[in-house]
Each structure stands twice: as structure tokens, then as C-alpha cells.
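Quick start: read one record
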Amino acid sequence: MVCGATRHDGVMGDSEASADRYYAHLARVRQGAGALITTDDGRIVMIDTTYRDFYEIPGGAVEAGESAPAACARECREELGIDVAVGRLLAVEHQNDGDERGDSVMFIYDGGSVASEDLARRSPDPEVAAVVLVEPADLDAVTVPRLADRIRGALTARENRCLHEAVDGSPRFNT
């Protein structure tokens, strides 16, 4: 298509109605953003929430009008009571959930390293029962397989300065 040309096939065009039809067919996804935060001895900072029976990394849902890194920083502040410098993207996973909630895209950002004592001074959050420090080898015992794999991918991406990308729990490329 030539720049400035207008299509009249009902997909895109200059009318508001055709634009509405086009946008109605695009994917709508939920987004979640979390931080891979480790301690100086290599343990992973995770939270024991009051509403799940497995551990999560600090983070949560991206709200309307909010960027994923901003959501990650906000959620870490709420859940840990500390400001986390949200670094580069380490892992991204597209999940085809196939239920009424729809698909999702999950991001893990590098949250750096913290001293264990800094976590002891966290603000109380009614959704967080405890902040726990998990050895990487123990991930499978404390969280769901998909998140354990995403965290391992993020650890590898941090070490190798690359990006871990997955679809429905399966890496797209070997990192």
C-alpha cells in the first residue's frame, strides 16, 4: 500500500466505523509485571500471599494507563515496602489461557539485589502473609511450574544479558 492511500476493504480505512471494526478484532490481554529480586547470597525474594497457595515474585497486575515497569515498581513498593529500581526486562511470556479471563502477557524485570535486613522493615500489606527467601533449586517446591520456569529463565537472562521469551510455559528459544 502506498503511503497516504486509503483502503476500502472493510479492514482499515478513513471512516470511524471501519477503524472500530479493525480494533474490535485485535487481541485484548491482561498484563502482569514482577521483579526478580535476589539477596546477596543468591536467594530469590518471593511473597506468600493470603489469596494463593503458592509463592509469587513481587509484582502484580498492570492497571489501565500504566506501563509494565511502572506497575512493577508500584507493586514492589506496596508488597515489600521498599522502592525497587526496576531494571531491564528479563523475561516475557504470552499465556493463552482459553478461559473467560482471556490471554495474558507476563513480564519479569530485573529488580537487582537487596539485603535481607531491608526486607524485615517492610510495610504491612494485607495481601502479603510473609516475604520469603527461596533458593533457586527449591522453586518447584514453592510455586507453580509455569512461574518456576519463568523465574529460571529470568535468572539465566540476567546472567547471560539476554531475554527469556516463552509461550504457554515453553521457551521460544534456548537461552
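The first helix runs from residue 16 to 24.
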